[in-house]
Amino acid sequence: MYGYDVEGNMDFPPLTWEWVFPPFCGLKYMGKTLWWILVTYLSLFALSDGRELKLRHKWNHGYQYNHTLATILVEYASAVYLSDLTALFTWTCSRCSHLIKGFEIIELVVDVEHCLQAFVGVAEDPHAIIIAFRGTNALSLQNWIEDLYWKQHDIDYPGMDDARVHRGFYTAYHNTTIRPAILDAVARAKSFYGDIQIILTGHSMGGAMAAFCGLDLTVNLHEKDVQVMTFGQPRIGNVAFASLYSELIPKTIRVTHNHDMVPHLPPYYHYLPQKTYRHFPREVWLYNIGLGSLVYSVEKICDDSGEDPTCSRSVSGTSISDHLVYYGVDMGSDSPASCRIIMNPRIQSIEDTRGNLRFSRDPAAPLIKLNREIDNPINVD
After folding, report:
1. Which residues form the Fungal lipase-type domain (predicted)?
2. Per residue in 261-271, pLDDT tens?
3. Strands 294-301 and 252-257
4. Cis? peptide before 266, omega within 30° of 0
């Protein structure tokens, strides 16, 4: 009986001449018995060699990684974490300057019930609708990572045969207040600005939600030329889903960082190709090389498999600190509480019966002028 090694691969003895042809075996092994031994061994060996299912659709090589765009979008993915909703909605927050100065938010939605947050707005450079989703708070990150290890529930994705996705990520986008608020804001922005480009971004779980939103906009709203760039995103579906996603949204980049553990989750089991989760292309891996005090940052553009063994899969995914910084930008909440929000009571918002909040305004409307001194903040923990 054979066991398994630490990576879950079947642990077979080495194939030797003595194993196939035992000493002094005589002629009794020269008939059907020998053939059964050979067939059985080779079959088991084939199951353990880790051959992977290939993506059915090739990634669009016409879409290239843009470093400048990445350094812009990572700032949006960082800003959406902030708990000061007044400063965020008026774009006067501590993270709302530098490369993303002048951005106009037209929708800020907070699903208090599920600790989710996202915004929709219009940027001048790049001239596009930007949609950003918040990831998991750093304080609850460890518990969330443990859930990714063990709670791998799949559901069928509508209209996609054999495509299966992670239930938690799918539900976070589709079955909360996030989706209707996002789609409504996109429709208002498009009616004002016309056929403007849509770019989605997010970090960690926010990256997973950005991917599902991009797919939703493409499949259900028939939007063209949707772009998605995520940071530290986990796997969200199986190989069939990855193939369909890469065909429908070829303008997608997943940025990973050094030993960031989240892109390694849910675990990838190459010996269960039909069931395992798999990344869609294309990955850009950020890592450092150097000797002593001389350290250089490298951006490696990976292959079109989605699971390039020379990129983040070439290292162990053991670091939470690598998950919390991308391009030198902090990726995480500014609040010590997991789902705390602060807002000025003079800001008008829509609140449903479950306490979820929406802040909306028409595109190109003047920014609301507020005193940054918040006398009576409303805290929701």
Report:
1. 130-268
2. 999 999 888 78
3. unpaired
4. yes
